[in-house]
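Contributing new complexes? Match this layout with biotin.
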Amino acid sequence: MTRSHSPILDSTAVINATFIRHVEYHAVLESTNLTALQLLAPLVKTGPSLVVAAEQTAGRGRKGNVWWSSAGALTFSVVLDPALLELPPEKRPLISLVSGLAVRDAIAENLTEHTVMIKWPNDVFVNHQKICGILAEQHSLPEGGNGLIIGIGINVNNTLQAAPAEVRQRAISLYDLEHRSFDLTSVLISVLRQLEIRARQLISQPMLLLSEANSHHLLSQRQISVNVNDSLVAGQCAGIDDEGNLVVVRPDEVVRLSSGVVTGW
Ligand code: BTN
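Output block (do not edit by hand):
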C-alpha cells in the first residue's frame, strides 16, 4: 500500500474550528517548541497561537531527550497566556495531564478498534507503544506575565519502520496501526477541540477529569519504577491524585511524585 502525506495544513480551517487565533506554519523547523519560545511574547500577545512544522530536525523531548519524528507526523506547539485558563497556580501542573488526556480522546476518536491510554504524566500509548509525546513549558515574559507552550508530537502518517531500532521498539503511528493515511488538519482540529473541552473541565469538574484520567491510565495497579532525580522509586501504582501526582505504594510508605520518568511497568 502506498502512503500519502497531507502536504498542506489548512490553517484557516483550524482557526475557524478551534480557539486558535493565529497559525505559524513551517515546512521544516528544528523544534516547534524552540520557535514558539523565540516568538513567545508576540505570540502570547496575538492570542492563542499554533506553531506547526511539517518536519522537525531536532524535536525536544522531556528531560532533555531528543524527540524522533519524520515527515507525516503531526508536530506542533500551542502558545497561550496561562492567565486565559483562569487556573489557580496550584492547578497549573495539571495542564500536562489535561493535554495528555485530550490527545488520548482525539486519538481514540480515530482508532475505534484499539485501546488508547495515557501514561503519567502525559504520554499517550496504544498497545503499550507510545504514539504521542508532550512537552509543556511555562516561561516568564520580559514585560511581565507568562507564556505557556504545549508541544505535542503525534505519530500520524509517518511509519516507525524508518525509525532507529530503539525508537521503533517502543513507538507506533496511526498509519502503522491502520495502514491508511489520516487527514492532518482533521486530527489537529480534533486534538485542539478536546484540549479546550478538557481545560474547561479542569475548572468546572476537576474530580471528573481526574477520575477519567485514572480510568484511562496505563500504569494503575502495576508494579512500576520511576526515576526521580537519579534515584529509583519502585512500588505499586495507585493512580494519579487530585494534584496530578503519581501515587506509588511501597511496603512502608505511600510516595506522591510530582515529576519523574517511569522507566519500568
Ligand atoms: C516526550 O515524550 O519526551 C515529549 C516529546 C514532545 C515532542 C513535541 S513535537 C512538537 C513539540 N516540539 C518539540 O520540539 N517537542 C514537542
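Reviewers usually confirm one structural detail per submission. For this one: The longest strand covers residues 129-140.
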